[in-house]
Amino acid sequence: MKADRGLAELPELARVMPQQGSMILLDRVLSHSEEAGTRCLIDLAKQQWLKRPDESIPAWTALEYMSQCIAAHEGYRAWTAGRKLGPGLFVGARRVHFHRPRLPRLGRLEVRARYLRGRAALGALSYACEIRGDDESGEGETVWVEGTLNVAVLEGSRALQEDRRP
Questions:
Q1: CB 111, CB 129: distance < 8 Å
Q2: Fewest CB within 10 A of the end CB: N or C in the chain?
Q3: CATH number (domain holding residue 22)
Q4: Strand boundaries in the chain, DSSP class E
Q5: Nearest CA among 143, 147, 145, 146 for reference residue 134
């Protein structure tokens, strides 16, 4: 079993994800390990360009948050192996449950992605994903969205060949 790396040892998200600049919607990584997956934090106050005029964020935005958490997980795996993550593609989802029609207006969300199965050589991977956060009533934590996301990661891409760490 591989030892988990401390967060201080991991590079910032922008160095391991294909998304750059304002396209990175995750604020920071809370934890990362091969076995347990990756947990990231989103500060909803910073998500201004995704909000509707009434300040709500549509629930379907969770699919992008979960996809980016998967990209962070795969990016850290690639970084650990001395390569850069190539482009990826959201392929589909199964048994996704949106427990509310929108995400909370304020507060923080925790996004979790844990590898389930797949063949990296083929680029087809499945992840169990979940978004948790405070209930808007202030009564405690709730699961806002959960499900299985399928992604394709282009392992053989030229970008992977060009950026190798010494």
A1: yes
A2: C
A3: 3.10.129.10
A4: 28-33, 37-43, 57-58, 88-98, 102-103, 108-119, 124-134, 141-153
A5: 143
Residue 2 located in a structural domain: no
Residue with tokens 């050589």: 121
Range of the domain at 158: 7-162
Per-residue pLDDT reduced to its tens digit, 76-124: 988 888 888 778 888 889 999 999 888 887 789 999 999 999 876 677 8
Single-letter residue type at 146: E
Q: Is residue 26 part of a domain?
A: yes
Q: What mean pLDDT comes out for the span 24-50?
A: 89
Domain count, the chain: 1
Helices (H), the chain: 13-16, 61-80, 158-162
Within-domain flag for 131: yes
Indicate whether 53 belongs to any domain: yes
Question: 126 near 116, Cβ under 8 Å?
Answer: yes
First-last CA distance in the chain? 24
Question: What sign for the dihedral angle of Cα 19, 24, 26, 28?
Answer: positive
